[in-house]
Amino acid sequence: MKDIEYASPEVIRTFQEGLLHDALVYLRDHSPYYQQLFRDNHIDIEDIRHLEDLVNIPFTEKKDLQLRNWDFLCCPKEKIVDYVTTSGTLGEPVTFACTEKDLRRLAYNEKKSFACAGLKPGNILQLMTTIDKRFMAGLAYFMGIRELGASIIRVGNGIPELQWDTIERLHPDAIMCVPSFIPRLIQYAEDHGIDYRGSSIRKIIGIGEGMRDQDFNLNLLGRRIKEKWDVELYATYSSTEMGATFSECEYGCGGHVHPELIIVEIIGEDDRPVADGEVGEIVVTTLGVEGMPLLRFRTGDMAAKITEQCRCGRWSYRLTPLVGRKNNMIKFKGTTLYPPMIIDVLDNCSEIANYQLVLDLNDLGNDDVTVRIGLPDPDPEHDARLVADLKNTFRAKLRVAPRVEVCRADLLARDIYRESSRKPLKVVDRRPKN
């Protein structure tokens, strides 16, 4: 059977509408949460025939999962074979229960995503992210590589010395990690005389952070990596809640959706769908999930949908790189900002070893931003000039300049790379949640 991603938009739409009907029937018959939602809102699922009809169903929000976590379970607990939790980016983590069918779905998802990023049998992927700590993605990557017929080396995150030792011993040709770890890996190689440019690595697949801007050009982090290390760069977007991955192909023009696994809507400020190509909030409906499927789940992530055919031949729609998270939107001195806009400026400053954004409310209840920058050898006179230059760059790029606080790089690193967190804590949002 030909991959549905290469079918025409009309065929993909009809295909997804059939899967949507199956998903609604399953929720009606098995989900305590959605059974009540359908009753309370007088929803007859037989009236939901087309993708456009989804607007007649209320959204599912993160708080619903937090407050009624186990009402989303659609099967007996005896069928659960793996428990995972979200990373808690928008608040308290949520538990997800996966059946054997769900794990097979995850493996299939990652197999397709790795293939989209150009991996095939014979490749060796070095996984620089955890597979423990109730982390869904690490397990999914492992299963997906096995399903693809390639090889994987489970090194885990951090520890540049161990990463390079593994590369020199086993000669993987691909790396999967959080992109901001790559400059640390390069720095370690330069400090210890490792010929990283001559290593076996030919491809880096990034997770959790973008490497391109809205025009699909490499962003500052992506350029910094590429200038140092001429390897292929691929970005991915995924989340525990949707159990699916959007991976770039070799043309780097957005993350491709797998139509058999997920339906995506892009919602504007009025909670209505926006035009294709317009930025809005990503709302997902999972397909084929047995344990804890979701209907119209608001991810909080902001992106646009691209519907024209990709040069790779796929007609499945793509998502642009994330603009930011809706809940992390900042109204600072009358200007709307997202953390990635500030991060782009910081990534372009070679004198900064690391950084962290802290979002607060000031005494008047307005958003306040502090940029903590880590410097290897703080010097008051030099630091003052650097802060002044940095603020001027912020004003030129963003029209406003947040407060800048100088820290020792080694001490700041402890706040960014915490043992208890699966991701670098580049953004700390201390503002009260609604």
Would you write up a description of this structure?
With 434 residues, the chain is of the alpha/beta class. The protein has two domains: 1-324, Rossmann fold (3-Layer(aba) Sandwich); 329-429, GMP Synthetase, Chain A, domain 3 (2-Layer Sandwich). The protein is 31% helix and 23% strand. It has helices at residues 9-30, 32-40, 62-67, 100-116, 136-148, 160-170, 181-191, 220-228, 339-347, 380-398, 409-416, and strands spanning 80-85, 95-99, 124-127, 151-154, 174-177, 203-206, 232-239, 244-247, 255-256, 262-267, 280-286, 297-303, 305-306, 318-319, 324-325, 330-332, 335-337, 354-361, 367-375, 403-408, 427-429. The protein has a six-stranded mixed beta sheet, with helices on both faces. Strands 10-11-12-15 form a four-stranded antiparallel beta sheet, with helices on one face. Helix 1 packs across helix 2 (32-40), helix 4 crosses helix 5 (136-148) and helix 9 (339-347) packs across helix 10 (380-398). The longest helix has 22 residues, at 9-30.
Labels describing this entry:
434 residues; alpha/beta; GMP Synthetase, Chain A, domain 3; 11 helices; 31% helix
